[in-house]
Amino acid sequence: MKRSLILLTMMVLVLLPLRAQERTAERTYVSTDRSVYVAGDRIWCSAFCVTGKGRLSDVSRVAYLELHSADGVAVTAKLALNDGRGAGYLDLPTSLPTGNYRLVAYTAQNKDEVDYDYTGIASKTLSIFNVFSTDRVTDGVEVVSPEEYDLRHPRPDRGSEMPGQAGHDGRAVGGDVSLTWSPDSVLHVTNNTGSPITFSLSVAGEDDIVPPANPDIAEFLAAARTIGKRSFRNQVVPELEGEVITGRVVADAATLRSLLGHNAYLSTPSEKADVYTSLVVGDGAITFITGNYFGNQELVCEIEGADPKAPPRIELNEPYVKAQVSAPERLLLCPSLEASLKARSLMMQQASRQNADTLYEYLPRREYPLLDGAPVRYILDDYTRFDTMEETFIEFIPQVRVRKGAGGRSEIQVRLEEATDIRTFTGASSLVLLDGVPIFDHERLLLYDPHKIQRIDVYPYTHYLGSSTFAGAVNLITFAHNLPHFALNKTMQIVPFPGLCWPTAWLGPDPEPPAETPDCYQTLFWHPLLQLGPGETLTVPIPIPASRGKMSATLEGMTSAAQPVVGCIPLF
What we know:
Oligomer: single chain
Low-confidence stretches: 1-21, 159-175
Strand order of the largest sheet: 1-3-6-5-4-7-8-2
Number of helices: 8
């Protein structure tokens, strides 16, 4: 898989100049669990990345989100895309000033597109209130009377029928999905379109705060089909497999010249080997084509062959455009909203205090492990423990040996077993890893305490990493999975890195919370990546809080025929 990824990357870099005008124009719509938040809330997001024909795009694998106010970018996030669909979230700092914010979404294709409008159809307005501070977005809030608030913010019609009855079906041009609410607190979603649909579903509370007006996915898809042919600068590598992490090597001129053409390695300590490589080129530029790192990571960077007496430094580039966007309209604030804001503040604090992470469902994600074959595994507790790594290899791991290499330094070598009757040590370099991090100074690893090692995985076949070929690989996995007490070489650098959001669903509060826990949540259910076949019905039990108020269910999605589906019904 990694070899295919590398070959694909090389083809992209070579052919990109020749096919600049054939790049796919994309637009990304983001549905959210609601449109009004308080500082400290989490904004749940579902992404729909489409082409100029309105169909889900299979090109970009990352969507970038930026939350802007008139004062600049407040929060950013990255979402993994799989065939045009993605999920994630934005965590709002408790220090965020009160005001309206603009959520913009884009991909690497948009970064490269000439005159891309970041405040066009792929943006929406969100209202955020800070109940702990009087700070406001610069010129972003207008205080009005309750009468003027109602006049300038007419409340949406919740329908004339009783909540949850069959007349509250969601409909859109070319699409038809029905939402019904049963007395046993179960929401039923039926796909009547005749095509498979993919959608997000939210159940959230309502109050006196009127949400900002935003185009829905039906309007977005209609606008996406009108973008026409676009031009591209041919300066940004398309993210066909995952995030493209760029950076540069910082060193004096002589050191930089000596490193040109060398491999730079990027990895993260974990049980799996998530390793990527780039050649150092030009003025020290490096480009890592990754399969996506998720969550906040500490990346280990190293350039093979770097001099530990004068180690270079690697700087990773900022992936966000932080584009200039038009300021959203001013937020209207009036005294009559005080009770609603206090209630929302309580709900936000409860979600944080009760460790809501335990109620999340982490959704599947694409992975590209370097070592994707079946290893020969040695769990060290099953054997007699030895006090040195060399003794450990000698005594019971026949696929690994230690020999003197160039310069008289010890090297760890793996025996190749790629053919049925051929098992041989070739003497060529093997890939040696500790918790998935490449270690090129094998003597440093031989000094490591083997009692910290949980298992040793041996891969006795040829591995390809960037422009390098390795005669086998061996991965030493510690109990902690984070290189505990390992003395890093001076050429190894640890860089904090905000990865992509874990694709996550929020399936509602604990059905049996402790008696002392307040029973109130603003969002009762959120799933960003649901699918239904033609004629199928999804049944969703919704835990209803004792202190229930007005609530509604909202669905946004599209059919496989690129038609929108939109539905919203009041539940109470």
